[in-house]
Amino acid sequence: MSTREYSMMRRGAGMTPISKSAALLIVLSVSLIGCADQSLIAIPSDKRLNASATVAPRATSVPVTPTPKPTHSPIPNPKATAKPSMSPQASAVPMASTIPKTTASTKPSWQPGTGDRTPFSWYYMKKKTGQVPDFPKETKSFTADQKAVWVGSGKKVYLTIDAGGPLIEVDLMLKSLKDNGVKANFFISGNNIKKNPDYLKRLLADGHFIANHTMTHQDFNKMTDEQIKKEITDFEEMYKQLTGKEVEKYFRFPFGSYNMHNLSLVSDMGYTSVFWSTAMRDWEPRKNGADDPYNDIMNNLHEGNVILMHQGSQENMEALDRICKEIKKKGYEFGLVNELQPKK
After folding, report:
1. Are the CB atoms for 243 and 235 separated by under 8 Å?
2. How far apart (Å, rounded) are the C-alpha atoms in residues 153 and 156?
3. In the chain, how many domains are there?
4. Same domain membership, residue 308 and residue 163
5. Is residue 126 in a domain?
6. Are strands 185-188 and 156-163 parallel, antiparallel or unpaired?
7. Are 180 and 55 members of one domain?
8. For 242-282, what is each residue's pLDDT tens digit?
9. Which residue among 43, 61, 79 closes a domain?
10. For residues 338 and 183, is the Cβ–Cβ distance under 8 A?
11. Domain check: are 37 and 172 in the same one?
12. What is the DSSP letter of 278?
């Protein structure tokens, strides 16, 4: 009992019974109200304690979530992922370490001839008749170890015939070349030689130049190093079995598809890659027949011209005699690609 309650009871000693009862009720009511006030105050304090308990983990979670965990678990609280910006040291480190690694593995810092695998497809930019075309900007990055040729010099033309597809009009082709005293350069796939060994023997008998065009004529940009090496060495072995001689180390990428890494790989095997400075859409029927290949070649005739034509084109074979005659009439000689020297 408080001092106040005791003093009230003392003063009430001289009261009437009724007054004493009323006073007692007042004292009891005050006591109960006091107890009730204390209980009401205790509840909010519990709530505040609980609230502080729940807030505390959020406060402590801020330095934890910026760790690399968000990169391992993609389900973090959005608020938690936003917090790393408040602590850049914790969040920047994993991000910085991840991005360069991805960039390095998919697109390494590129330097000419250091194993870059970005795919390229050979092309040229035609100029006026008689002018040497422009060539891909990548050629300026070729190193001395990446042996490649695509144009010569002087009044010489290098007729290259790719035989990776159908071998049509062989008799007509050989007659056209022989009648004009032309020695051509044949890039033949091994599977064609394997099926037609007499074709190779006839070419060699007429003095034409034979070069490696792989065994099965696949896109090297889609192959491993070991597969590429096998394509080239299988051709070498087959050629030696049929001729008793080593094939000269000149090579053409199927479809003109290459990359810096593969160019180095082929060069390391001793080969010079031969591209071209004139070509045609001769893998499809020509609208104007034999006139189309004739015009394609004569309208881009230039010094050191490396001409690419495919034997699988009927129109090419029909136009070949006329093409040879007209090129000679303009004062050009026909040469072999082993006369060409890679640019230093």
Report:
1. no
2. 7
3. 2
4. yes
5. no
6. parallel
7. no
8. 999 999 999 999 999 999 999 999 999 999 999 999 999 99
9. 61
10. no
11. no
12. B
Tell me if 312 sits within 8 A of 137, measured CB to CB: no
Could you tell me if residue 85 is inside a domain? Answer: no
- Give SS3 for 134: strand
Dist CA 98 CA 103 (whole Å): 9
Considering the domain architecture, whether residues 212 and 291 belong to the same structural domain is answered as yes
- Comparing CA positions, the residue from 184, 193, 206, 185 lying closest to residue 164 is 193
* Whether residues 158 and 56 fall in one domain: no
| Residues paired with residue 209 on neighbouring β-strands, in sequence order | 185
Same domain, 250 and 332: yes
Tell me how far apart the alpha carbons of residues 159 and 181 are, in angstroms, rounded to a whole number: 13
**Nearest 5 degrees, angle CA 22-CA 25-CA 28?**
155
Task: Identify whether the C-beta of residue 262 lies closer than 8 Å to the C-beta of residue 220.
Answer: yes
CB distance 272 to 249 below 8 Å:
yes
Q: CA 244, CA 302: separation in Å to the nearest integer? A: 37
Q: At a CB cut-off of 8 Å and minimum separation 6, what does 271 contact? A: 147, 212, 232, 249, 250, 251
- The CATH number that applies at residue 269 is 3.20.20.370
Give the SS3 label for residue 198: helix
For 178-227, how does the pLDDT look when each residue is reduced to its tens digit (9 = 90+)? 999 999 999 999 999 999 999 999 999 999 999 999 999 999 999 999 99
How many residues are present in the chain? 344
Full residue range of the structural domain in which residue 329 is found: 131-339
Q: With left for phi above 0 and alpha for psi between -120 and 50, is residue 259 left, alpha or beta?
A: beta
Question: Which residue's entry shows tokens 């010079």?
Answer: 272
171 and 299 housed in the same domain:
yes
Measured CA to CA, the distance from residue 234 to residue 228 in angstroms comes to: 10
Task: Choose among 221, 212, 207: nearest CA to 192.
Answer: 212
Q: CA angle 196-198-200, nearest 5°?
A: 85
* pLDDT range class, residue 115, cuts 50, 70, 90: low
